[in-house]
Amino acid sequence: MIIAERKPFAEIKDAVAPYEKVLVVGCGTCVAVCLAGGEKEVGLLASQLKLARGQNGKASQIGEITVERQCDLEFIRPLSETVAAYDAVISTACGAGVQFLAALPEMKPVFPALNTTFIGVNEEAGFYTERCRACHQCYLGLTGGICPRTMCPKGLLNGPCGGNIRGKCEVNPDRACAWCEIYAKLEGEGRLGLIEAILPLHAHGRSTTPGTVIHPAYKRRYGAHE
Ligand code: SF4
Ligand code: SF4
């Protein structure tokens, strides 16, 4: 899932200071799981804004709504009508959701309430770790399910580097060397021969940005080449 964290309140408050009526739009998927931008966090942010504006003696109207996913047109399309009553919108979605929302017709200025951090996992309550950099060329089948591009700070495709110290990473000695972990995992799976294989060079041409993926079943519909 996408992990994000909330911006400092002062930054959000200042961004929408020129606007009297502000709608806070939450997202009920990834950012809800990581406790950054779901319904509860929207309620909290809306309350903080009301309180801060009340303290400044500034009359204002703060609305709130949370949709299932802001990265899906089906869920955000109805917001085009909702925002008509507001002057600006705060989105608590990841950067993708904020952009999709901002591109809707008749949309008011949209301001992000979160900083999007990475694609990761929910290890324990409130504890998230990065696992994937969406590199367009997944190596996990050759590396025992441990991502060399993400878990090794150097993103080495053929490791370990000479810097590892008794299984610890030279960049961050508090962490295990990802390539030592890959070695141990492959050994445990009886696939250690893979450690000597040279991983194919990364095809950087595939990861040009912005990326597009068209599902094979929809290629004809979008006029894409087979
Ligand atoms: S190799 Fe790593 S960064 Fe690339 S797609 Fe697989 S998990 Fe993601
Ligand atoms: S010590 Fe291991 S994880 Fe750290 S940079 Fe070198 S190969 Fe990567």
Residues in β-strands, percent = 15-25%
- The topology string of helices and strands comes to EHEHHEHHEHEEEHH
CATH class of the largest domain: Alpha Beta
What is the count of distinct domains?
Answer: 2
- Coarse shape: elongated
Instruction: Tell me the number of helical segments per DSSP (H or I, 4 or more residues long).
Output: 8
Distance between the termini: 29 Å
Helix content: 25-40%
Largest sheet: 4 strands, parallel
Ligand species:
iron/sulfur cluster
What is the averaged pLDDT score?
A: 94
Low-confidence stretches: none
CATH architecture of the largest domain: 3-Layer(aba) Sandwich
Q: Which strand order do you get reading across the main beta sheet?
A: 3-2-4-5
Number of strands: 7
In the CATH hierarchy, the third-tier topology of the largest domain is known as Rossmann fold
Q: Rg to the nearest angstrom?
A: 22 Å
Structural class computed from helices and strand pairing: alpha/beta
CATH superfamily of the largest domain: Response regulator
Provide an overview of this structure.
It is a single chain. The chain has 226 residues and is α/β, with parallel strands linked by helices. The chain folds into two domains: 2-118, Rossmann fold (3-Layer(aba) Sandwich); 136-199, no CATH class. Helices cover 26% and strands 19% of the residues. The chain is built from eight helices and seven strands. The chain has a four-stranded parallel sheet with strand order 3-2-4-5, with helices on both faces. The chain has a three-stranded antiparallel sheet with strand order 1-6-7. A hairpin with a 2-residue loop joins strand 6 and strand 7. The two termini are 29 Å apart. The model has no long low-confidence stretch (mean pLDDT 94). The chain binds iron/sulfur cluster (2 copies). One iron/sulfur cluster is lined by residues 132-135, 138-140, 147, 149-150.
